[in-house]
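Recall that a protein's primary structure is simply its ordered list of amino acids. Everything else, from secondary elements to tertiary packing, is in principle encoded there. The following example makes that idea concrete.
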Amino acid sequence: MVARNEARQETFQAITSFLSKTKSLPLVDRQEKVKPTSGPPLALLYHSEDVSIALECLEAEYFDLLAADKDATAAKEDSSQIADACIQEYTQWKTDKCSYLSSIRTTTDNTLTLWTSLLAKLLLSFGLDRDEDVEPVESTDELIETLMVAIDTELYMSQKSYTPVVKLDPSLLQTKQQKETIKAGVLTKTVCCLTKELRRELASIETLTELYNHHEQLGKELEPWMNSKPDVSEMQTVQKDIKGLRSRLRHKLADKHDMDEAPELCDEKNKESLNDELGQIRSGLQEAYATEDKLLVGLAGLTKRHFPELALLHPTFRIKDYLETNGLLKHGRDLQQFDLQPLPSTKSSIVKSGQFNGQNIVIKSYNISSEDMRTVLLHNAIAYSKLDIDRLLHIQLIIPTSELSDQLHFQLPQLPLNLVRTVKETTPTALHLQTIFKDIVTGLKALHGLDVIHGALHPENILVTEDMHAMLADYDFSKTPTERAQQGYKTDNGLHFTAPEINCGLEAHVASDMFALGVSLLFAHYPETAFTMQPDGTPDLTAITIKPELRDIIKKLISYGQGKRPHSPAVLASEYLKMDIQKLEEEEQKRKEEEQRIKDEEEKKREEEEQRKKEELQKKIEEEERKQQEEEQKCREEQERKEAEQTVKIEEQEVSVKEEKNTEDDDDGPPALETEEGAEEEEVDINQNMEAEIKKEKEEDSEQTPSVNDDETMSQGVESSL
């Protein structure tokens, strides 16, 4: 340990020195991008200190040269050995070019000076107030021609695409071609060398940056432990608390056992109090276990990187077991910390549900019949836990029941639904199902990419979260993929998930998982449809009409031949998983809304028509009632008139009778008693006759005028006919 500590000190000093020297290098400045707002690529090169930008500018500007010289420079020596030669050659070429162009410019300048002098003489010769004689002016034609040739020669030799105006010496064309050839060769060598150097510099910057970041992280890890050691007191305290809580839990469970054996000796209040205490102790114990796991992760990391002696100094921490089993195996724990209940969604007695530190978990138990089985099971579980796949349900920990390990209990997170409950208890949309199977195919792609066969893919092993994403459940670690596939699975509607080749005795293959995937896809979209299996072991699809977007992919996945089934990448690229189902659902929703709108409009029109008919019927009934009331009113008035006439007649008859009586009395003298009685009887007979006549007239009137009841009956008949 002393030598190790000294080596750590030396390493930290070396890292510090490396970081200091590397930080002083202009790596950041060379990577900073200083881009002008405009200009050609070479302007970017001149104004940029970013190596990558400089390299891009060179390649863009001299692409043709680099492409032409690609094969020629491939067999040459390293650019670092010819860089000086290229620079010297380029410098010599540039010097020669400047000297040649300078001589041409000198000839042009001399000719231009002569022409200027000639123009001055001409100006003087035309002056009217000159006092002295001026030398005669020579011919200007030859001088003009010489000047034009000199200017064209300079422009032709200095510019690449200039076309001469006058006829030049043919040797100039040959000279220019030679110089362009030399220029191309020099530029090609220089640019190729420069691009290689820039690439080397860029690679060196990236390497140094990576080394700097790596050593900086390593220095941060080493610095806290230069003069100190890991503090394990918190871990020891937690383990002490765990020991006390486990002891309390055992005593309380014993008390509960006693209460269960003699329920007549305790009341409900004591039972509730004991259950509350058990819940509190379990909660505290699980919280302590979670803290222990968190501390153990840190100690295992320190043991692996800095302090390997920790595993030997503190054997109770079981750091060695943690490192060997990827943190899965938890000795010293048992199932008493859980309040386990049978899992509702499964009939298996080895799978139970509970809670750990507030999270829903599942405990899956395996009976270990031999040490070889224990070794194989742990090996498979550890390999499974190292699979870094997002869509795979990971094992949280493994609890052996005793040192003999006659059982192993796997703790896994519990998701609310599986595919069976999802399609039967909820109403997933087409988009939800597409998302679920995209997640499953993604998980299978990662699993198959690591040469792992699931072998137990079926709707109960496809777990669904609340936001309608899916995860692949774990499989039976005590069995091989072929043994898992041979167990088989059948849904209530008659679908079998075992691939045909498994039934023929072949080993499980990637294609076996893809067959189960196709049947799962079929079940998810048609959970209530009854299916029959064909003699070759594939579902019979003749009785149903499959949706167009599903037909191709399902038929390929459930093909009899393994070679005809697509693998996960091809399924991910299929039309079903690539199509925009959300857009289709929106269009379908719009179509349904339009149909509902048309239906509502038709219903509204029908209601309006019925209301109109009712109003017409009501008007007709009211009109009939009004007519009936008018008839009745007329009848009553006629009856009253007749009664009045009858009354007048009766009165007239009474008056006439009285007058006749008076006349008879005057003729016969005082009436006798018999005469008076006879008169009274006669008067009664007259009244009875008049009443009989009135009653008869009323009966005749009633026969001629319909009654109210008859009118109501008529109106009801009319209404019923309408």
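Strands lie at 341-342, 351-356, 359-367, 397-400, 407-413, 417-418, 462-464, 470-472. The chain has 25 helices and eight strands.
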